Amino acid sequence: MKLLSQLRTSSFQLALLYMVVFATSVFLLLAFIYWRTAGFMTAQTDETIEAEIAGLAEQYRGRGVNGLITIIRERVSRDPNAKSIYLLTTDDFLKLAGNIESWPQGSRSDSGWINFTLDEAVGWNGPKRLARARIFEVQGGLRLLVGRDVDELTNLKRVIETAINWGMGITLALALLGGFLMSRSTTRRIEIINNTSRRIMNGHLSLRIPTRGTDDDFDQLAENLNQMLDRIVYLMEGIRHVSDSIAHDLRTPLTRLRNQLESTLMSVDNDEAREQAGRAVAEADQLLATFNALLRIARLETRGNTADMKPVSLDELVTDACELYEALAEDKEQTFEQRLNKDVFIEGDRDLLFQMISNLIDNAIKYTPEHGKIGVAVRRDGADAIFEVRDSGIGIPDEEKDQVFQRFYRVGKSRSLPGNGLGLSLVSAVAEIHQGHIVLSDTYPGSTPPGLTVSIHMPAFSGVSKRIKATQAELPSSSGEEGSHNPPKTSDV
User: Fold this and answer.
1) Which one of 134, 155, 176 terminates a domain?
2) Prediction pTM value
3) Residue 117: how many CB atoms within 10 A of its CB?
4) Does the pLDDT of residue 483 top 50, yes or no?
5) Ranges for the HAMP domain (predicted)?
6) What is each CA distance from 93 to 65, 97, 142, in whole angstroms?
């Protein structure tokens, strides 16, 4: 599969195109060389035959038929290897002189040239060989054939053709290998950029694309992308700093305002004024909850993975959270189902995990109508510990599932319900600290409403059971001032 993916890359296709162009150029060059070489050798053979014919014609003019027969016999006797081919016959093909016995059968051109095989059919006693000759008529009704043994020339042409074929094959193989190696090197560089980009998109904004220091095109691209990321992070940090500063600076005067409103609520006797003061206190509480959530998310994001990590029993933690929210579910007459596998441990911060779990359960209850269904599950799948909350509520559209973890983002269907759009941002921050990832899906795909299932996958802790029990004994209980867990007011979609 990796080889197939390599073949589909644009770099390999470009290398393949280059290989085709290069191989075509080599083929044309070798074809030209062969054409010129073979043509030269054939022309040289024809010139030799023409020269012999000219010599024989001069002898015939000077000495007549008898002189022609004598010179042919002399040449045959001087050529024991029979490189030259001669045959002189009468008009009815009766042999007068020569080193073959009869006229050959072969491809004959209009100009009198013939290519044939020296074999028993023409009275040849030696091994079969290829020959080329020219036939013409002599005055007096005589027929003359003069030729040359071209078997070595033919073999040489075959050697050249074989060399060209092997050369083309080796050229194609080397070009293909070079294209593969070149595309592999290019693909590796691109894959490094892609992998780093994917990790950056998953939230690791501190990563940067590595360079080789060669200052080539890829290094320049990586440096430009890194500068762009630096600029984006700078702008994001600026926006985040502004929002965090506003939340921090306004929380104190807003707290004083809320306390003054509460004092006014306790001092007024008029029912209408008391009702208005109560609404003002509730609005102030909502604003304070929003600011507190912003500051909490900011602390989590700057805290990173430096949280107080200890082995935590995920099923026990979820049980504690469910006990807090069962009453809320009963008030809306919702079915509250729990499927909690025992002894599912993760390494994490107990308080932060409790906030995350509480937010998700509170969301499920809030956005599920009366008589709806709520399900909470804890299980282990291989190396992952999974916490899951599912409901039969209004759900989240597919096109918005990637956006609900942004600060202050609220799904259109939930805008009429109380909330500030920070609950899932807090959940995302806690999950990231614990190296977890969140999966959103419809509980009832295709139904209306579709409901929502939130699954959080975190690395399971596989330490020694004794150590886990000892550590669990040292952890604070779910009650008490320092470790107490109250349903958070910031949970919403």
Assistant:
1) 155
2) 0.46
3) 15
4) no
5) 184-237
6) 15, 11, 9
Query: Is the peptide bond prior to 449 cis by the omega test (within 30 degrees of 0)?
Result: yes
Task: Give the alpha-carbon dihedral of 74, 76, 81, 82, to 10 degrees.
Answer: 150
The CATH number covering residue 231 comes to 1.10.287.130
Q: How confident is the model at residue 491 (pLDDT cuts 50, 70, 90)?
A: very low
The CATH code of the domain that includes 50 is 3.30.450
* CA-based nearest residue to 483, from 353, 292, 325, 379: 353
Q: Torsions phi, psi of 49, nearest 5?
A: -65, -45
Alpha helices (H) along 202-216: none
Give CA–CA dist 452/364, Å, rounded: 8
Those residues with Cβ within 8 angstroms of residue 186's Cβ, 6 or more apart along the chain or in another chain: 9, 11
163, part of any domain = no
Q: Is residue 281 part of a domain?
A: yes
* Tokens encoding 214: 């060669």
Question: Which of 137, 155, 173 is the endpoint of a domain?
Answer: 155
* Within-domain flag for 436: yes
pLDDT at 268: 75
My answer on whether 286 and 372 are in the same domain is no
Phi, psi of 373 (to 5 degrees): -120, 135
Give the residue numbers spanning the domain of 295: 217-300
| 340/469 same-domain check | yes
Torsion of CA 108, 110, 111, 117, to 10 degrees: 0
Whether 7 and 97 map to the same domain: the answer is yes
Please write the tens of the pLDDT for every residue from 143-197: 888 988 888 788 888 888 888 888 888 877 887 787 777 777 777 888 888 888 8
Instruction: Indicate the range of 132-136, 290-294, 374-378, 484-488 predicted with least confidence.
Output: 484-488
Does residue 491 fall inside a structural domain? no
